[in-house]
Sequence to fold (588 residues):
Amino acid sequence: MLTLVMFFVATCGFALLWALIYWIERSRGAQ
Amino acid sequence: MNTWILPLLILGLALVIAWPLSRYMQWVFDSQSQSPLLRRWNHWLELGLGRSDSSIPVTWAGYCCSMLVFNYGMFVLVFAVLSFQDYLPLNADKKVGLEPTLAFNTAISFVTNTNLQHYSGEAALSYLSQLSLMWLQFVSAATGLAVLVAVARAMSGAKSMGDFYRDVATASFLILLPLSFVVALCLAVSGVPMTLSGAAEATTLEGATQTIARGPVAAFVAIKQLGTNGGGFFGPNSTHPLENPTYWTNIISNFCILVLPMACVWMFGRITGRVRHSHVVVCVMGLLLVSFVAYAVLCEQQSTQALANLPVSASSNLEGKELRFGASAGPLWAVSTTSTSNGSVNAMHDSLNPLTSIAPLTGMWLNVEFGGIGVGMLNMFLFIVLSVFLAGMMVGRTPEYLARKIDSHEIKLALLTILTHPAFILGGTALFAATSWGRETLSNPGSHGLTQIVYEFSSAAANNGSGFEGLGDNTPPWNIATGLVMLFARFIPIIAPLAIAGSLSSKRATPEGAGTFRTDSWMFGVILLGTVLIVGALLFLPLAVLGPIAEQLQAAQ
Fold:
């Protein structure tokens, strides 16, 4: 169970980084 | 005088070899090269990767997404291997799967090129796990190099960032693999084991039976050093006599720590067509590195307080040193490994004199004195953008870098990214110093204990991986916290330079005129050095005072 939790935590971390790319892209486009 | 021979030899040798190596690196990444070898390599890549049309331009976001997907895939694979190694082959010594938070920490640690190890490899990992970590040591280093090449391409005016998978394959197969093969061969000849047999049984002089761990150590150590990885096959890392047996293996290893990060800076200059600019950057980085080495070697000339009343008190600080390498090898390696984001150790950093320990800490706080493979220059790229902006503001001109005008978008990205580094270190230290998560894992009270916590977070945030030791860091809070810090501290400083380069490359190039602030002048070097020291180091001064400096003052009383 804890293995799945840690896998989920890492997946969320990568998802946040993926969101950062799109946030930067949008903030550039908004200028 | 003898004290300085080893530092001069290693630093000089690395500089001399890095220059032609940078030429080779530029050559292999040149997709337009007419060399028969490279044309055949590019043909194989097209066959292997299934991409025949390289004319479609790749944006920075596309390049970033490919990089993240690839790294996530690596994490999933290695996390599974570490968690279920007891069900997998190449497990001669019947090792069980890692505890989940430790598997998370270890997989993230190697994916991010950090190699922070909260375990002893010879005791906890099967050979398949060790080999999967060795594979990560190649591809994580290749990731950093690929991103630097993409940024350099964009700054040179290329329409496309390139293909991430093609760059990673080129970095792995044409740079890291051949170099690692040569270094592994030198290490194996010097006595480092290279075998897939299980642990050896030996009978000691007293008649007892001793189990001696071994494995594919030479191959592991070669890429560990060349790829600024630092994760050891054995728990004691390069202090272990089977990882670093002799004076010569120590020289080879320390040389390998420095050579590729140095070559990366010149490679950036060659790809962008601004070699004089890269000379200035190398000078700034080199000045910082040499200063820290000299400072650390001098500070370690004094004996530790623990030996104050013993007959050896007149010697240098011999505590925690491997004497087969010589007296200056410990502080030289400590600075080399922390300045280049490597993280391997050949001496106990916990045993350095308090003032000496400021040198490796500052190496990780700045993270630009050549830095990790690829990412060291990327970190410096952020400081360069900031320096150009500050210089432009001082003289009232629009800041330009490599003929592209810098505006608020790039400055915000650079500054925010630079500030995430201290935020991870200071925030993490505050949290763990204030709670039982950190306090109950310390082996020393007071200032030294604080330094242990600071060092661990600095090592994670700089993707360094070295340990101050003395800290009981294999606990769920440490594993999770440092795992998350490593993840974000690795990829935010990779994403931001790609975004800045992508943004700058989309602007029209402005020809340099008399009013352009030149980035290949000594004045730029001074401003860059000042920016790195003021923005990068001053934020950490309170921690240095509360930790190592306070400890030194207490010891002197």
Q: What stands out?
A: The CA atoms of residues 6 and 12 of chain A lie 10 Å apart. Residues 2-29 of chain A form the longest helix (28 residues).
